[in-house]
UniProtKB/TrEMBL annotation:
Cited InterPro entries: ClpP/crotonase-like_dom_sf, Enoyl-CoA_hyd/isom_CS, Enoyl-CoA_hydra/iso
CDD domains cross-referenced by the UniProt entry: crotonase-like
GO molecular function: methyl/ethyl malonyl-CoA decarboxylase activity
Protein known as: Ethylmalonyl-CoA decarboxylase
Lineage of the organism: Eukaryota, Metazoa, Chordata, Craniata, Vertebrata
Alphabetical keyword list: Cytoplasm, Lyase
EC numbers on record: 4.1.1.94
Superkingdom field: Eukaryota
Entry similarity comment: Belongs to the enoyl-CoA hydratase/isomerase family.
Function: Decarboxylates ethylmalonyl-CoA, a potentially toxic metabolite, to form butyryl-CoA, suggesting it might be involved in metabolite proofreading. Acts preferentially on (S)-ethylmalonyl-CoA but also has some activity on the (R)-isomer. Also has methylmalonyl-CoA decarboxylase activity at lower level.
Native source organism of the sequence: Sparus aurata
BP terms from Gene Ontology: fatty acid beta-oxidation
SUPFAM superfamilies named among the record's database cross-references: ClpP/crotonase
Keyword Lyase: yes
Catalytic activity: (S)-methylmalonyl-CoA + H(+) = propanoyl-CoA + CO2; (2R)-ethylmalonyl-CoA + H(+) = butanoyl-CoA + CO2; (2S)-ethylmalonyl-CoA + H(+) = butanoyl-CoA + CO2
Amino acid sequence: MCEFLPVKSIINILCPVSPRPRCCRMVLCAVRRQLLSSSSSSSGGAWARLLHRHSSGCVHTNVHDFNQDEIREKLQAFPGGSVDLLKQESGVAVLTVNNPSRMNAFSGSMMVDLEERVSQLESWTDGKGLIVQGAAGTFCSGSDLNAVRAISNPQDGMKMCMFMQNALTRLLRLPLISVALVEGRALGGGAELTTACDFRLMASDSVIQFVHKHMGLVPGWGGAARLVRTVGSQNALKLLGGARKVDAELGLQIGLADAVLEVPRAEEGAGTQLQQAEDWLSRYTKGPAPVIRAVKKVVLSGRELPLSEALRTEKDVFGTVWGGPANLHALASKSKHR
Ligand SMILES: CC[C@@H](C(=O)O)C(=O)SCCNC(=O)CCNC(=O)[C@H](O)C(C)(C)COP(=O)(O)OP(=O)(O)OC[C@H]1O[C@@H](n2cnc3c(N)ncnc32)[C@H](O)[C@@H]1OP(=O)(O)O
């Protein structure tokens, strides 16, 4: 199994129809069990276990099981903007939400773009880090309200929600250390996007705000679940219940922001905020890609899996780096210190 071809993707290839007929679901459950057991000895098994845990819902005729292709087609009907990806030699990629005339709001086609960029990053085996930013000095103002108005029926709204929830879950699970570079405003789904990164760097004059309550909504892209895990349930309740504006100071205080970037002043020669973000991230991505990716994998499984599965995953991932080039090189250099 390809290192990052999640079990669910294989299942979708085998049976792309939705809802899946019961007989098909029974067969697919057997296939899923076989895939999980056959790849359990490699780190692929760890990934299969991790992803299975989150896709197992569809084993129980998950009501949210839907045909990705169907919603992808619907979303394409709402064009505008783009999600751009720059993969750099350094192993750090930059993902840019690019729709400045709409404060980088996600049009439907941009949601499809995002999922395609995540797929590209899942296949990027040299990657170590990722910076997610918005164009033109602001982060993202959530869903494009014009698109939201057009797909406001519950079925399509739910499908859009699941499409973005899946895309952001896969984004957070990338074996890359990711940071959201928050300049200007991150609102609604834009605030949720910040939580789909491992870290958040806020410009001193930026704001993160979960405005959903003002829309008569709650987060749907997974932002609530991730927010609780980031800042705790009490703070999450305050941010969601009060649609509270989180500035850089409050962000640091509650742990939503991991650092504050100074607004670059040309005369002081301070680099752009993207350069500052790359400098900040470099302390965690310095080193061989296999080791950096292994670090993210063991932390991710520790965060998402029950202890016994997390320990098994850790053992599997350890096995991929023990005796590897970086380990042997380190041992050789240490032997000189006798
Ligand atoms: C799961 C959550 C998800 C969902 O439910 O689908 C959502 O995210 S719902 C959307 C949540 N986001 C918002 O409610 C933010 C809406 N925008 C604003 O509050 C303001 O635009 C702003 C972001 C605070 C910026 O205000 P301001 O500086 O005054 O600029 P403008 O308001 O004039 O905006 C400039 C320009 O951009 C358009 N714009 C901004 N945000 C969106 C958006 N989310 N969708 C569509 N268009 C947006 C705005 O209409 C202006 O365009 P023009 O009127 O053509 O100049």
